[in-house]
Amino acid sequence: xxxxxxxxxxxxxxxxxxxxxxxxxxxxxxxxxxxxxxxxxxxxxxxxxxxxxxxxxxxxxxxxxxxxxxxxxxxxxxxxxxxxxxxxxxxxxxxxxxxxxxxxxxxxxxxxxxxxxxxxxxxxxxxxxxxxxx
Length: 134
What we know:
By secondary structure, the protein is an all-alpha fold. It is about 85% helix and about 0% strand. Helix 3 (about 75-100) packs antiparallel against helix 4 (about 105-134).
């Protein structure tokens, strides 16, 4: 078992930087609209809060699964593929919501990319478990 974790560390770092960018957007909008708590009546602030919140809801689980996959010795290609898909998906989701609070191609890419990543990770974990038990 490889304890290097270099691939999952890369995506943890990249996703952390994206998280900070999303948080800075909220701070900027709070200053602009002079809103300390909540979103006031500012729709752009409400959207930014939801983008950040959605990121916070999905990314930690996917990163945990990526680290666990790394610990089990998953191939670097698989880990890079999943990490890159998640990173691109989260950018797509954020851009899609910024462009339109309705449906958009970027938001669809973001949602599908995130769900595909999680489903593949879950499948890997279950397969790994079954392989260890049998």
